[in-house]
Design a protein that fits this description.
Blueprint: E1 9-15, H1 21-36, E2 40-46, H2 58-66, H3 83-86, E3 89-92, H4 95-104, E4 112-115, H5 136-165
Helix pairs in contact: 1-5, 2-5
Bound molecules: 4-nitrophenyl phosphate.
Amino acid sequence: MLGGVDQDISVLFVCLGNICRSPMAEGAFRAAAARSGLTACVESAGTASYHIGHQPDPRAIAIASRHGVDITGQAARQLTHHDFYRFSHIIALDRANLEGVRARAPRDGTAQLSLLLDAVEGLQGEPVPDPYHGDVAAFETAWSTINLGVDAWVARLIREGTDLAV
Ligand code: 4NP
């Protein structure tokens, strides 16, 4: 609830494995929403099934923790048919996964499908590069980039909710 605006916002972040980028996005979004007073349900999922049930990658856990965000309670899951009706927004971390999301979208799915960085002025269409095969610096870069996107989405969702209320 923000300034009396009761929004029905639910966000699902989607990457490939759901152990690196989308868990960081879920944690970062939860923290940013709390800071901004935005009430929203947030989860994450992968387009692939490789890591179902796994905790986020230890490097993702470490970088989130360094920024005061605990993502250890997350467990990877795969995107489901039901997600297209449950969430108001499904936000992919890169274009390949946005295409994967689109390919699975039911005709009457209600979720709005977007790319994380489309909310950031000057970064529209850009991916959050996959840090999985990279080093700690790649996770640092991913965390910063994800936070740019998440902050822009929180601002956009607050604006849209406020606009709806007037
Ligand atoms: P994510 O990173 O999509 O950001 O979770 C990856 C994690 C695992 C794999 C690929 C990407 N994998 O090939 O196992």
